[in-house]
Structure to design on (501 residues):
């Protein structure tokens, strides 16, 4: 394999914060090179420099044997480097073909778009990916995985020889992820180099050829994947041994029911029944679209349900609105913290107090000293890494944003906390901190329900797991029966070989 990209001695400082310090990395043709590190380690900054989004302070970027300096992403893509960010940059109301060739529409001599040629060229481009959608389909009707394929096809159509993929599976189902991995493998065989940014160890070890680890803006290690273990990668990322990634499970689960749901039904789920007991973390597993989030949102009054009963501390209730649920101490943490969970342009302080404004206001005016005190207490208690409580949330890493969202609801003094994908898109160190935090909350008497698409997380932190398939509960497992085989079988609506609790 020939050398495709050579980055040497890259440094970058923002103000007084040195985010990259003498960083060097190389990528070969046909190589999938994992770039990993905790949130804030400098991964995205490095790739933003390589792809022309931001300038470097020092160092060299050599691409295909040429010393290059890109002043814009357009210059980078014209030279053969494409950065596909987590947030896809497509025009949803346009067709697949229009998105792929927006940069270079085939036109006649008077400037009119040649539609037939456009859709034929797109069909040829899509043949590489064996897709099940057409060149004339509107992008808004495609799945996230299919939209990612459109992004990749667009980059390939622009003659990209190096692709940078930033957390490409963060919003994908298991099946969609496998579909994407197949495409990556085909691109690798064509000699295209790929920088793969991910927090998921299974993807790194099943998909990538080599791995580079960044910590605090410095290169810690670069190795072939076959020569390193997941434990070594994690330890190098966080700079310390994580002897127990998950906290010990509950020694004893009490008989007391904090919440009981009986025969909940709506157009999105049917006859869902389960209970949450004091002293346990209750997990909800299943494929994306199984109805897990919809059930929880209905419990909290965020969505309507048609029939069924809800019992809270032995008393029958109905939350007609989310305000009803919050007043009762039932709080829901959305899976999309950036879109629905946080006010990104506001400060940490404002976000933390946003759910309890009434309690820190006097005569309709917010008492700033109370707000500031509350924020400082939570920053220390939860371990939010920040220089100030007045820093805007959008400036924080994903893990710290998640901690702010948890703090926002903890100050509301919840009795039950429902967390939807609590560690999506955050690094292993922050994940571990959140896992231990949830166990501590349970030991304080707070009921915890966790919805997660990450099977290791469900297996690692939950005391019991309810599994759903297409809107129905297919089983509940506990103890040793919380394992990959049981969860996959139940999520696929298959019966287990033995009865489980």
């Amino acid at each position: 394999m020939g050398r495709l990209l050579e980055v040497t001695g890259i440094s970058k400082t923002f103000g007084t914060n040195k985010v990259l310090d003498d960083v060097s990395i190389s990528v070969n043709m046909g190589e999938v090179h994992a770039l990993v590190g905790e949130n804030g380690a400098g991964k995205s900054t490095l790739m933003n420099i390589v792809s022309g989004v931001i300038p470097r302070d020092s160092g060299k970027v050599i691409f295909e044997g040429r010393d290059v300096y890109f002043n814009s992403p357009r210059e980078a893509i014209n030279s053969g480097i494409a950065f596909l960010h987590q947030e896809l940059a497509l025009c949803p109301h346009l067709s697949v073909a229009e998105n792929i060739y927006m940069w270079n529409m085939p036109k006649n001599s008077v400037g009119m778009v040649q539609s037939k040629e456009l859709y034929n060229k797109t069909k040829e481009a899509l043949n590489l990916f064996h897709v099940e959608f057409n060149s004339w389909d509107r992008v808004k009707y495609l799945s996230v995985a299919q939209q990612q394929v459109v992004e990749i096809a667009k980059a390939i159509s622009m003659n990209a020889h190096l692709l940078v993929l930033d957390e490409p599976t963060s919003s994908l189902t298991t099946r969609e992820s496998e579909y994407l991995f197949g495409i990556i493998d085909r691109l690798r065989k064509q000699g295209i180099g790929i920088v793969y940014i991910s927090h998921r160890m299974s993807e790194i070890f099943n998909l990538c050829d080599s791995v580079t680890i960044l910590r605090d803006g410095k290169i810690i290690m670069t190795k072939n994947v076959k020569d390193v273990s997941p434990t070594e990668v994690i330890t190098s990322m966080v700079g310390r041994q994580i002897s127990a990634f998950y906290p010990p499970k509950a020694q004893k689960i009490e008989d007391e029911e904090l919440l009981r749901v009986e025969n909940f039904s709506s157009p999105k789920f049917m006859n869902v029944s389960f209970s949450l007991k004091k002293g346990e973390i209750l997990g909800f597993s299943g494929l994306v679209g199984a109805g897990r989030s919809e059930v929880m949102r209905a419990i909290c009054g965020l969505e309507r349900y048609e029939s069924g009963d809800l019992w809270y501390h032995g008393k029958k209730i109905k939350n007609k609105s989310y305000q009803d649920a919050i007043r009762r101490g039932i709080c829901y943490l959305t899976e999309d913290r950036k879109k629905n969970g946080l006010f990104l342009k506001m400060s940490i302080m404002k976000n933390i107090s946003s759910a309890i404004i009434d309690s820190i206001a006097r005569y309709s005016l917010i008492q700033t000293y109370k707000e500031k005190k509350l924020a400082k207490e939570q920053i220390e208690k939860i371990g939010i890494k920040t220089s100030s409580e007045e820093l805007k949330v959008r400036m924080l890493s994903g893990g710290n944003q998640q901690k702010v969202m948890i703090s926002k609801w903890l100050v509301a003094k919840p009795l039950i906390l429902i967390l939807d994908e609590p560690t999506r898109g955050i690094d292993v160190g922050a994940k571990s901190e959140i896992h231990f935090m949830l166990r501590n909350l349970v030991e304080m008497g707070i009921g915890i329900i966790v919805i997660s698409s990450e099977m290791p997380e469900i297996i690692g932190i939950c005391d019991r797991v309810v599994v759903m398939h297409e809107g129905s509960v297919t089983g509940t497992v506990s103890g040793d029966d919380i394992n990959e085989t049981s969860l996959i079988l139940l999520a696929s609506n298959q019966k287990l070989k033995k009865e489980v609790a």
